[in-house]
Design brief:
Mean pLDDT: 92
Radius of gyration: 18 Å
Distance between the termini: 17 Å
Strand order of the largest sheet: 3-2-1-4-5
Structural class: alpha/beta
CATH superfamily of the largest domain: Ribonuclease H-like superfamily/Ribonuclease H
CATH class of the largest domain: Alpha Beta
Helix content: 40-55%
Shape: globular
CATH topology of the largest domain: Nucleotidyltransferase, domain 5
Number of strands: 5
Length: 232
């Protein structure tokens, strides 16, 4: 299906605006000005709709290009404001700092933790965990034990609740917060989830998690065009 059918702007302009917003600390109005300098007149609400539409699509399309992660998980949550209330962005990286997975949740409990781990385990680029390092959140041990009982993860998987070992994931949060903080909160859970999927996708691209050599693109912009069928 043509993802750009019925759009009033060229596809490369749309993807460029989306990429700028998801990668840099820019507002929608900043991007309006940048595009205006290039002779493109577009409203900030149009750019917002592009981000909500193509952010999740970008996340979905890069999945098959992601490099394998290691079997050492570092898991933590960070806070995201939605409609004036704090929600929880579950995130995991491996021992080298590569993103394993992420999930926005309204709650911070056993059900949410278990759902996040199941999402991470379902991604083909992730290995079954040998060790999982978490903070002192009491929801993690019972959630992981349930997964062991259900044979979703090996019984011998080591669970470590040691905060100082999770510095790598806390450092990784900073990039996401650098992009989301200027947004001053999201208007709905759905738009927050859509935007965060795009931000995380660009973050994985920035960290070199994508096998660019398997595509004809030589840079991130070209690779994104390739994902949407805009380059040979």
């Amino acid at each position: 299906m043509n993802e750009f059918k019925w759009k009033h702007f060229e596809s490369h302009i749309i993807l460029m605006a989306v990429r700028w917003y998801l990668r840099y600390s820019l507002s929608y109005r900043d991007i309006v000005e940048l595009l205006k300098e290039r002779g493109v007149q577009v409203s900030h609400t149009t750019i917002m709709r592009w981000v909500h539409q193509y952010g999740p699509e970008l996340d979905k399309r890069i999945r098959r290009f992601l490099k394998p992660t290691t079997d050492s998980y570092r898991v933590d949550e960070t806070y995201i404001k939605v409609k004036g209330e704090w929600k929880y962005l579950y995130r995991a990286v491996d021992s080298t700092g590569q993103t394993i997975d992420f999930m926005l949740s309204a709650n911070r409990d056993i059900i949410a933790a278990k759902r996040f781990f199941k999402k991470a385990l379902s991604s083909p680029h992730n290995q079954s965990p040998r060790v999982i390092t978490v903070d002192k959140n009491p929801a993690y041990p019972p959630a992981l034990q349930q997964l062991k009982d259900e044979t979703k993860i090996p019984q011998e998987t080591l669970i470590r609740q040691t905060k100082y070992l999770n510095n790598i994931i806390e450092q990784d949060h900073r990039f996401i917060k650098k992009i989301t903080n200027p947004m001053l909160g999201f208007k709905s859970f759905q738009t927050a989830e859509s935007t965060l999927k795009g931000i995380e996708a660009l973050h994985m691209l920035r960290k070199g998690q994508v096998e660019l050599q398997n595509s004809p693109a030589l840079n991130v912009a070209g690779f994104i065009d390739h994902l949407f069928g805009l380059s040979a």
